[in-house]
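User: Here's a chain of 80 residues. Predict its fold as tokens.
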Amino acid sequence: MDQAIRLLNQSLEITERIGDVPTQAMALWGLGHLAEQQGEYTKAISYLQPALEILQRLKSPDAESVSASLDRVMGVMGNS
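Assistant: Prediction complete.
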């Protein structure tokens, strides 16, 4: 999992540098998913929220899935 996080962070840095916004959103989503899997819910939200905002702005159908992930994480946090 550490290697996946490292690679996604590298992808995020590159996509930010070159302005590839859709791929940036996917990297954020992936990082959010991994943070959720590790029980780091605050960190997951910090990745999922901007991913959702980007995908909604782009009118991407992936926005629904990211929104569901964000809702799930927020629900877990609300129950803890």
